[in-house]
Specification:
alpha+beta; 5 strands; 3-stranded antiparallel sheet; disordered C terminus
């Protein structure tokens, strides 16, 4: 199995049987809250703590459901499918699964972002005569 982590918390799980698309986003989290019958603040608090395997599977399932519904496709996956995908990734301690979880929390995107320093040179009357962007690590 291969995973593609895409911008805006979207992802693809490339399986032998085909590609599964998902997106961690507001609707996915809304769906998770509806199923668990919890508030958004309870969900955010739970995401900051160690998640149970059941919670991790459910968040992943809701993210895949979002992509299916958005495209108007039937959604027939279950927790059994999710667990099989996780096993194909190498299990709950595999690099692929851990990267997928980090993607949900935005950790991968944060690590990849670089800041930039803008350098401007002004004349005595306040006009900018030179402006440049210097990438920072």
């Amino acid at each position: 199995m291969k995973i593609n982590l895409l911008p805006r918390k979207e992802f693809e799980l490339i399986l032998d049987s085909g590609t599964i698309q998902g997106k961690y986003g507001l609707w996915s989290y809304k769906r998770y809250c509806d199923i668990k019958q919890i508030s958004l603040s309870e969900m955010l608090s739970a995401l900051d703590k160690e998640d149970s395997l059941d919670d991790l599977c459910l968040i992943l399932l809701c993210s895949v459901e979002y992509s299916s519904r958005k495209k108007g496709l039937p959604f027939n996956y279950t927790d059994v499918d999710i667990c099989e995908w996780i096993e194909e990734m190498g299990g709950v301690t595999s690099d692929n699964f851990l990267k997928l979880l980090a993607h949900a929390k935005g950790e991968e995107e944060t690590k990849e972002k670089k800041t930039a320093k803008v350098e401007k040179v002004k004349t005595s009357n306040g006009k900018i005569i030179k402006s440049s962007v210097i990438p920072q690590e």
